[in-house]
Specification:
Elements lengths: L1 H21 L5 E8 L2 E3 L5 E3 L2 E8 L17 H4 L13 E5 L3 E3 L2 E3 L2 E9 L5 E6 L2 E2 L10 E2 L10 E27 L2 E18 L4
Parallel strand pairs: 10-11
Antiparallel strand pairs: 1-4, 2-3, 4-5, 5-8, 6-7, 8-9, 9-12, 12-13
């Protein structure tokens, strides 16, 4: 029995090692909400007619790092030489919405848009909604799309909105986008990482 047990243990260890090698450094993330629908059915009600608002992004992990910096170096580590922060990892953070959204008085049409964050200081963050489209795989020769936020320029901005930045009593290990206080007329987008939470309100115009 011992040789069989040894073989099984070896197989499990090798499988575990192979699995570890396949792990993604920054796993894919997805935040979603659905509004303006209604429930139908008495016994097993289904939500129908809703409109989706979704964010897809890479989820970097803190792993003990000093993320933000301070003074003139604030945000530089996260930008990695890009003009703004991709607010995620790898591929550009992407917003897909079935309805127009209004940020800071500017209307973002329904469809797909990239999201970036300008990190000016500990209290000055700006959400940027852009019409730059993302590269699915890094291609330095493609100047029509972006990998992360490298090559970003302001000419495709759709909206810019100041974010409210607060310190949290806990540390969020993996970057997280989420929706808060949602209703049929709007809500809040929130970004959490480390001991920081940044939020921005948006409204949804009447159809």
């Amino acid at each position: 029995m011992r040789p069989i047990i040894a073989l099984v243990c070896c197989t499990v260890l090798l499988a575990g090692s192979a699995s570890a090698q396949r792990r993604i450094t920054s796993p894919d993330g997805h935040a979603a909400t659905e509004i303006r629908g209604h429930y139908e059915g008495a016994e097993d009600p289904a939500y129908v007619g809703g409109k989706w608002i979704e964010i897809s992004y890479g989820r970097p992990i803190k792993r003990g790092r000093d993320l933000w910096g301070s003074g003139p170096t604030y945000g530089k580590f996260l930008n990695h030489g890009a003009p703004v922060w991709r607010a995620g990892a790898d591929i550009s953070t992407y917003l897909m919405t079935d309805v127009p959204l209004v940020f800071n008085g500017k209307t973002v049409p329904s469809g797909g848009h990239t999201l970036f964050v300008e990190l000016k200081s500990e209290k000055e963050w700006t959400l940027i909604v852009s019409d730059w489209q993302p590269q699915q795989r890094y291609n330095p020769g493609d100047k029509t799309k972006l990998w992360g936020s490298f090559g970003y320029t302001k000419d495709k901005d759709v909206a810019r909105a100041p974010m409210t930045v607060t310190k949290t009593p806990w540390v969020t290990e993996e970057l997280t986008w989420e929706f808060l206080d949602m209703s049929g007329t709007g809500g809040t987008m929130a970004l959490r990482w480390d001991n920081v939470m940044a939020t921005v309100r948006f409204t949804v115009p009447e159809e």
